[in-house]
Amino acid sequence: MIPRLAPDPQDASLVNEYLVAVAKAGFAGDLSADRSTQVVFATDNSIYEIAPHAVLFPRTSDDVSVALRLLAQPTFRNVKLAARGGGTGTNGQSLGDGIVLDLSRYLNGIIEMNVSEGWVRVQAGVVKDQLNAALQLHGMFFAPELSTSNRATIGGMVNTDASGQGSCLYGKTRDHVLELKSVLSDGTVWTSRPLDDLQLEHAKRTPGIVGDLHRFIDHLQRDNAAAIERQFPKLNRCLTGYDLAHIRNGEGKFDLNSVLCGSEGTLAVITEAKLRILTIPQHSVLVNVRYENFDACLRDARSLIAFGAASIETVDSKVLGLAQQDIVWDGVKEFFPSIGGEPTRGVNLVEFVGATADEVETRLARLVASLEAEGRMAGRLGFTIARGEAAVQRIWQMRKRAVGLLGNMQGDKRPIAFVEDTAVPPENLADYIAEFRAVLDRRGLDYGMFGHVDAGVLHVRPAIDMKAPDQERLIREITDEVANLTLKYGGLLWGEHGKGVRSEYSPQFFGSLYPLIQAVKKIFDPANQLNPGKIAAPGSQSLLKIDGVPTRGQADRKIPQGVRAVYTDVINCNGNGACYDWDPETAMCPSWKATRERRHSPKGRAMLTKEWLRQLSANGSDPLLEMKKVRSLSSWRDVPAKLLNSAFHGRVEADFSHQVKDAMDGCLACKSCVGGCPIKVNVPSFRSKFLELYHSRYARPPKDWLVASLERLLPLLAAAPRLTNAVLKASPVTGLLRAFGLVDLPLLTGIDLRREMAARGLAFATPAALASMSVEEKKRSVVVVQDAFTSFYETRLVLDTLDLLKGLGFNPLLSVYRPNGKPLHVHGFLKQFEATARYQAALLSNYAALGIPLVGIDPSMTLTFRSEYVEALGPRAAPKVHLLQEWLAARPSRGVVATGKRYALLPHCTERATAQSSLQNWVSIFSGFGLLLNVVDAGCCGMAGTYGHEARNVETSKNIFEMSWSRHIEESQPEEELVATGHSCRSQAKRFGQVTLRHPVQVLLRHLRELPPAK
Q1: HSE value, Cβ hemisphere, 13 Å, CA-based, for 202
Q2: CA 125: distance to chain centroid?
Q3: Residue 242 CA to chain centroid, in angstroms?
Q4: Phi and psi at residue 974, in whole multiples of 5°?
Q5: Distance between CA 778 and CA 440 in Å, rounded?
Q6: In what side-by-side order are the strands of the sheet with 81-84?
Q7: Which of 19, 336, 490, 965 has the highest local Cβ count within 10 Å?
Q8: Which residues pair with 101 in a beta bridge?
């Protein structure tokens, strides 16, 4: 029988009683047991879905102690608890149907750093990249490398004994753990560190569970030393968790941390760690060796190991092909050339690092000499070399994205994690993988491979449609075969990503030592309450089974196929968690970064929407029919019913859609998810569909109607700009707008665009103007497409754009103003948006039919034509509108003498996420003017259209601004002027940063006017 997908109501009363007791006992963190929290914490980066009853968010180690002390009371012995960090586990390690203890929201501080002694003390929720960003300032780093390093927490790394690239040089997480502060099953807080014999004897005499643990583990290891030596494999990856083989370290000291590292929260809850840190290698170089087939790639890796590389990673043709469709490829394509038409079907990435350039170059020279001498031997096609930190890191970023890129394969069958981290001795890897591939090929499965060939670890993800029952059965068939295969080649089923739900194979791999493993679990966790069913189960209690735990696919198949086809972004979210990115400077979900609430992440919103679709299907509702109904009816016919529903929804029924709506309201519609997510999950797209249906039942707030009508109202308001501005500034009006939910609305410029254009001899792209143009004039012409924000709030920028184009020798025309419709789409007015888009597209298509190119000034509005318009109208009907810099960069440069003047560009987040290559267009344009432009790695400004003007969002909007933009503005240098491409960005900088930023066009125009006339 398949276990439940949601918490059992019969257990709810006991959990609720426990939560009340926790609150009364002084727990200072947050408690949450609503359905949205259960949904968001029901998944990780695996195929499984297990909803918890509640989630605790401790603020301190004392909070964790309170939670476990109460858990140990007889009353609550049936309550289970699973600790969770970044939720990046691929095998359900942190999933549980009891209580989830989230250590990432608050326990994420770097406590102490001692560079001279080479260590740092951190809380469990610190993200790996967050730690290394702080250490980098001191020339240090925490070594174990992960593909998920931008969201994986230190606590999670310890609990899975994580490792990845470079493990042969740097080892695993446990090799860098000096001390662990843990909360034991009875609430005792204990700091474990290597102990000499005298210290061990003292620990054994400690009262309570601490003394019991040290006495028991010491005797267990001593009494079974020979068996442990025989059973534990001699691999780089070892048997992670309960590692009795390393209970005595190299100095002969007793180290309880070898048992705790990799124990997946089944023995204790780790809240702090003291870690060894290393000096950052000053020099690095990466050799990219290309192969004619993947087998050659694997077999040649054995010969490459002899050259003493820091790491050797491999990537197959499937991953390379997907990378070429991703935003990451622009930065690495030069290193993977296609020569002579021969396709590259495998790549080995060989990295050398060192403290000196000579050290690196000496080893590199040996490898290069061998590669050049042997030529096409071993199936090699050639190689390239990447030198320097920037180039090397771009390639490693591509390799890191491999996991997510595989998930972006098209169709219902998606590569999934379940046998993806097997480890065998490196000398056996090629033969092992040949048999592994045969297992998959016999079943006609597609798959991609990448991994750490120097450690004998290869990540293999077969493409399976988990929504199909016959496909789901392959999980059992394949896992059983692969488990036997790894044993045959002297390896492990889990070389890197922990055991989790795969723990049913523990007895098979631990063999005769499994009873010892059970005994370790029993002494640490007598009642089997900590993450039960994982790694070891005491006595006769059972372990989880891979086909005995609910999966996401089982739940997804409850959604009708037609609905899944429309909500593909929601269904395809595979939980990899790339959207949990820690870095405030990356183009990824700013609402998650500002709130640290997982429901306010793309993954959280996708999971909530999926649950909403499931509930609709369970209730017999068809969202597709509802959508057609909404678009066919008048908006005003059902207003009374909507108002009634809105007035009483909190008292009449518990509608889950309100919890979904709350999460959607935090979305900035910035599109960072589209660029940053390897699966290309598009939250603004399915958010608009949700809002359309939500507001078919519940009334919209007045502000939505005001925002939706803004583009149409602006021409009327601009007819009397002084009056409009005076009214907007009047206290009664600002108070009324605040009551409606809007604040800090911008004022009209008051510039008469028509009069200013006439004075400059500029023309609108009217039918009459176009008809009177000669063929030569049309060749020099370009139509600047108006948008509401620049035309009415930054009219001077529109004129400057036209002046620049004219000064560069073009014939600029300004399109007739028509609404773009983006505000309609953002707020879910999809029927109105489609009508607006058709109206605008018809006009722009007339210009394009004459062969005149179209360009837009504001990135957000311009990119709507290639995204929302394509979705609404289809790719053929959507007008082709270039970003201004894309079009300009393709035109001949003036070729002026360099002036050395420096500028720094703060890009719009939508532009950075979905049109990244266009930012380099600005660099080349500035270079043509003799100007230096640096594109700043900056996050979101926090405005995103009207988001920052909504009263409910002001605090979050400011927090987002302060996370990234505020620092860049404050630290800017006088000799390097900041410029910004987005209207909303410039508005936010003026609002919270008290600075006026120019658009790049305005900089170029000023310099153009200073240049001598072209000869």
Answers
A1: 7
A2: 17
A3: 31
A4: -55, -30
A5: 58
A6: 30-32, 54-57, 99-102, 81-84
A7: 965
A8: 56, 83
3-state secondary structure at position 808:
coil
Number of H helices, E strands in the chain: 49, 27
- Sole residue written with tokens 């889990």: 494
C-alpha closest to that of 617 among 533, 564, 558, 537: 558
Mark whether 628 and 761 lie in a shared domain.
no
Tell me, what DSSP letter sits at residue 950? B
Same domain, residue pair 229 and 313: no
Q: Is 89 part of any domain?
A: no
CA-wise closest residue to 315 among 282, 354, 339, 350: 350
> In the chain, what is the straight-line distance between the N-terminal and C-terminal CA atoms, in Å?
83
Q: Is 49 part of any domain?
A: no
* DSSP label of 746: P
**Among the three residues 246, 279, 312, which one is the final residue of a domain in this structure?**
279
Is 179's pLDDT higher than 80? Answer: yes
Half-sphere exposure of 731 (CA within 13 A, CB side): 0
Residues 664, 757 within the same domain: no
Within this chain, do residues 123 and 236 fall inside the same structural domain, yes or no? yes
CATH code of 910's domain: 3.40.50
782 with 713, same domain? yes
Residues 691 and 711 in one domain: no
AA letter at 582:
W
SS3 content of the chain, % helix, strand, coil (to 5): 50, 15, 35
Q: Which of 395, 292, 286 is nearest to 340 (CA)?
A: 292
Which tokens belong to 955? Answer: 């605090």
Do residues 656 and 794 share a domain? no
989 vs 796, 951, 995, CA distance in Å? 18, 18, 6
| Same domain, residue pair 356 and 402 | yes
Instruction: Please state the domain count of the chain.
Output: 5
CB atoms within 10 A of CB 106: 18
* Interatomic CA distance for residues 769 and 761, integer angstroms: 12
SS3 sequence of 331-356 = HCHHHCCCCCCCCCCEEEEEEEEECC
Residue 785 contacts residue 821 (beta carbons within 8 Å)? no
The residue out of 684, 699, 714 marking a domain boundary is 699
> In this predicted model, what pLDDT tens digit does every residue of 220-267 receive, in sequence order?
999 999 998 888 777 666 666 798 989 998 899 999 999 999 999 999
Determine the structural domain holding residue 969 and report its residue range. Answer: 901-1010
Reported as a single tens digit per residue, the pLDDT across 379-428 is: 999 999 999 888 998 898 888 777 677 777 778 898 899 998 999 998 89
Residue 430 belongs to some domain of the structure: no
Contact 1008, 1014 (CB under 8 A): no
pLDDT digits (tens, 9 = 90+) for 108-133: 999 999 999 999 999 999 999 999 99
Identify whether 509 is part of a domain: no
3-state secondary structure of 750: coil
Question: What are the residues facing 32 on neighbouring strands?
Answer: 55
Distance of alpha carbon 60 from alpha carbon 314, whole angstroms: 41
Q: How far apart are CA 114 and CA 121, in angstroms?
A: 9
Burial readout 649-660 (b: 16 or more C-beta within 10 A, e: otherwise): eeeeeebbbebb
